[in-house]
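note to self — DONT lose this again. spent like an hour looking for the file last time. sequence + predicted structure for the chain T wanted, 591 res
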Amino acid sequence: MTRRIGYAFCCMIRGLAFLRLLLFGVPCPGVVCCLLLPDFEGSAHFLHLSRNKSNHELGYCEAEAKLASSLDFWTLSSENLLAVLPVDPVKENYVRKVKNCIFSIAFPTPLKSRVRLVAVSKEVLEDILDLDLSVSETDDFIRLVSGEKIISGSVPLAHRYGGHQFGIWAGQLGDGRAHLLGTYMSRQGEKWELQLKGSGKTPYSRNGDGRAVLRSSVREFLCSEAMHSLRIPTSRAASLVVSDDEVWRDQFYNGNIVKERGAVVLRVAKSWFRIGSLEILAHYGELDLLRTLLDFIIWEHFPSVEVTEPNRYVDFFSVVVSETAQLIALWMSVGFAHGVCNTDNFSLLSITIDYGPFGFMEAYNPDFVPNTSDDEGRYKIGNQANIGMFNLNKLLQAFNPLLDPRQRQLAAQILEGYPVLYYTRFRELFKAKLGLLGEKKGDDDLIAFLLHLMEKTAADFTMTFRQLSEITQSQLQELNIPQQFWALKVISTHKLFPAWVSQYLLRLKSNKNDSDSERRKRMTSVNPRYVLRNWMAESAVRKAERNDFSEVHLLQHVLRQPFQKHSAAERAGYSSPTPSWAKDLRVSCSS
């Protein structure tokens, strides 16, 4: 406990100079490690420098489980960041090279035309932000989530980071159209960082306009919430608003510039720090700041790592390597391709962030590339695990100067273990997708055999596994595949399909204390019936551009429970083959 208080006190002292200059009347933390603000919806709101734990672990009094009905007493804080991490001393908002800091203060630029609310996530509002859904109908809410209103306690920040893009060091990148509004402490004692995307220019905008368009914002809003429902670690989306502000984009980087509508997404995550957050500090030799940021990240987000231990950076790296392997294996288990796995898009907390030209694979194809600007297929779905290794190596290179020779050797050994970690988790996930229990020698071959048949027949990835979850063993044994199992009909055209079925049924017989109904129940709980296919998102976008948000709302509803059958989703064809109009649909690169 003494070491923890000592760390917090040192962080506080280090940040006081910045607080005095920058907090515009927001009080500095006291000598103790927390600050009590008494006017949060009738209960105390604690802002502190402790780890991100529950209120029970921290010994908090249980706050009344009540949702805020307005934003009048709802507050954010930037103190936990600003008390420790230095801010750019230049206050003007213009594009420039920034050095020796983590953030620049940058205020959102309000949209000029009327702002409409497209959608909100009830779960994020109520379960994370402690806001009653009715708050989303207020003008204050619209002004907040569009960047017009700055809430009490907020000091809007743009984060400075760099990164390797398509394998090449790209220099300073940073939040070019995103504003970190502050940290919210939920009534469960969890810290969540709120960030607007598409909210205007910052010092890191480079040649951009600071805006996001409706097309890409609908996709990000829907996908981040869909991924959460698929049980994949991800940033969340609280709201999406659209305006009539004109934003010009070259959607496919082919010289065809078109007018689109500006939109803003309110994104929520435990942290927005990424591999590039550390890379830029190492690149410019800012090693003291690199150490400060790493210690802060460990303290806030890695409770299993003791921040005062000499080997803390090695221990931190071990966790990141393991959780990155887990994340990418989860992506693969649902056929998700991120599309832009640059180091500036890879979270240090191993959550999915920065949804751009992503895609859910339809016909199984290891070479599936959702990003039409990825000409060489660097980020194809079958290469994501290798890219994870590349990115982790760049992370290790970034904090390598802080390690002694023995620690460097240990870290290198940890990185070498990444392929085994990834493959082990991949294997576990795909065994579960096939309903296999226990360990058998031929399991790997059985999985590989099925994927081979799927590739050769271009069978639908999602529905092949889902329909294997729904068909009975007797139907499979007789090769009597009902017409509604259209994906299995496709794969059954391969001459080796009967051989695979025989091996599969034989393996299922070795499941101890299992029945066919239990197998199907187990498999339908891990094999989704619905994912956000590109054509589904495109259909919702086209309607939204006409101010018809009905399909956005339908997809929200369906993707909230992707493992359950929905009558409205079936009528919309969400579990049917790709419609003819969408066969050659391309994912836009620009956002």
